[in-house]
Structures are given as structure tokens and as C-alpha cells.
Amino acid sequence: MPTELEELVDFIIHPNPQIRLLAAEGLIPYSTSQPSIFKADNFKPVENLKKLIKDHPKIAEHVLTILINLTGDQEVLGKVASDEKFLDDILSYVVLPEEPNANLHSMLLANLAKYDGFKKIIERKQPAPKGLETDELVVNQLLDLFVKGADGTYNKDADFDHLAYLFADLSKHAEFRQHFLKQQDYDGVIPLNKIKVFTEHKSDVRRKGVASTVKNIAFEISSHEQLIAEDEIDILPYILLPITGSEEYDEDDTMDMLADLQLLPPDKERDSDPNIIQTHVETLMLLTTTKEVRDYLRQVKVYPIIRETHLRVDNEGVQEVCERLVQVLMADDAKEDEEEDKSVRITELEDGEEEADSSRKATRTSKDDDDDDDDAQIVEV
Questions:
Q1: Which CATH number characterizes residue 75's domain?
Q2: Which one of 25, 172, 174, 337 counts the least CB within 10 Å of its CB?
Q3: Bridge partners of 49?
Q4: Phi/psi at 272 (nearest 5 deg)?
Q5: How much is the pTM?
Q6: Which has the closest alpha carbon to 101: 147, 65, 130, 66?
């Protein structure tokens, strides 16, 4: 005889929409406390939930919340992320300018990106939505959605911040890193240039995801000169500004720094999140892999900035990576074994393919809430 909880799970497909609504809302807490109930009967409740994202927006809101929570489980993640038809539905809904649950769709997509097979999304196409000025490649649609939707002008109900976490997970794969670095035919823009501007955004989620994406792309060693070239990506100001405060430097050092760092206001503050600062310094560490970039970092006086970051950020992780970077910048290249040096730096950070704190937790009351545990995104009540 089924328990009351099992009966509640069955009610999510009840013909009466009011009962479906009450059942879906009532099941949200159990999606975190007792996720096993959704695995019954060969994951039939999960299959039912996937169908309900097309239901009334309020029901779909609760269903998406449950699915976000459940996809922290690897078994459920595989069942959901491998469903091509379901992915078609999610991707078609998230780009609609009137979709009220677009942020939840974004969060779910960020979780689904943890499934290795999800990387096939790079080949996926769908009709471009009106008003987004993009092409048929889904990944380009999501990038343009992330940019245009940041201020709520595309969809008044969404900011799409959590797509930053999606990009961070996708950029663990070489094909996506290369896509982020390749000028696109439809608008003539390199995708990384679209998102780099958010390293100082007000949203913690956006800053964290973009910082992790940039770090992952820095694993493309052959593209390091493209990354720092002022007439191409010019990534250094977007890495250095978030880790720079209002400190004053020697005049000679200041004059050699990048132009963007020379006339900072007296109230300039470095990023408040030490994890984001650490990610940026780790990106700089990766960029020291080649002698050409090391020389350039020395030339534009990155060392004084790292020195002040080490001095003023009371965080063990930040201080450790600052010390490692200083050792590299202060080393005499003539005494280094180039190949050994490259191997050491990459090995040190290899675990470093970022998942934007793979452990993400968001709440329904705050778009920017982001805790650091070791699971996927969880939506709480």
C-alpha cells in the first residue's frame, strides 16, 4: 500500500491542475530531503516531471525547482541530461522573451552541463528567437542571452546570471574553449569578448562564473598571445581590475601598468569574494606558461598588484597562489628549464579546470545567493 508521500508524488500528474499545483509545491522540500522517492518505478516520477515543464507557469516553476534539486544526484542527472527531447524543450523555453521561469531554466541548464554528454550541445541548433540578434547555434544564443538579458531588457522576469555557471562547466571541454576564442561569422565578435566585461558585475554569480570560464580558457596555451593582445581579446584588464584596490604605487610602476589600471578612483575596491580573487590569480599563473607572456606581465607591472593583493586579502588560498605567481614573475628565465617550468605550472593548476565552485546553491528569494558546498545547484524553500 503506497505511503502518503508516494501518493503525493503520483498527484503531480493528476488531471486537475489545482491538485498538480499543490502536489508540485508540496514536493519541493522532499526533492532535497528524500530524493529517492523520485526514483521509484524506474524513475517514473522524474519522467513525469520532465513533461510538466510545459504546464501552467506556476506548476512549471515548482517542477523546475524540483528538477534543479534532483539533478544534483548523478543518476537523475543522467536521466535528464541525456533526454534529447527534454533538452529541446528547455532550450526553446529559456530564450523566449516572455518566459516567466527563464532563470530557473538557466539554473537547470547549468546543472545539466555537469553531465559529460551535454557537451554535444555545441552542435545543437534551433531557430533564433526574435529580438535576440543571434544565429541558429544554441551556444551562441545562450551567450547573447547572457549579455542582452543582464539588465532585464530582454526578459523582465530574468537576469540569466546562472548561465555563467553553464559557460564555466562547458569551458572544461576543449571544443568549447576554442569556440569562445573564435570570431563568429554572424556578428564578427569573439564570444569571450562578450562575457569578459562581467568580471566586475554586481552579481556574485555572474562574476564567479565568468572568472571560472576565463580561467578554463587559459588552459589553451596556444591562444595566450591572443588572450593578452590589446587588438584581440585584451583579457588582462578584466583579470587585474577585480583584484586591484585603491592602493597607491610608485610612480614608475604606475606609468608602466596597463592604462585601465593607472587612474583608478580613490574608492576603488577589489572583489569582495576571495574565491573569485583566487581564480583570477590562478588564471594569471596559467598565463605565465610561456616566456613571452611572462615577460609582458613583468613589463606591465603585475608583480606590485599581486604583492598588494597578497598583503591585503586575508585568505590562505589567495595568499598561496599569489606566492607561487610572485616566484614565477621574479625568477630569472635564463636559469629556468623552459619545458619543466611549463609542466610544473600546468600540473599545479590542472585540477583547476573550474566549475565555478561546482557546488552551487541558490534560493528563490535571492538571485545572487551562492554557497560553497560540493553539490550542484539546489533551490531551497
A1: 1.25.10
A2: 337
A3: none
A4: -80, -15
A5: 0.90
A6: 65
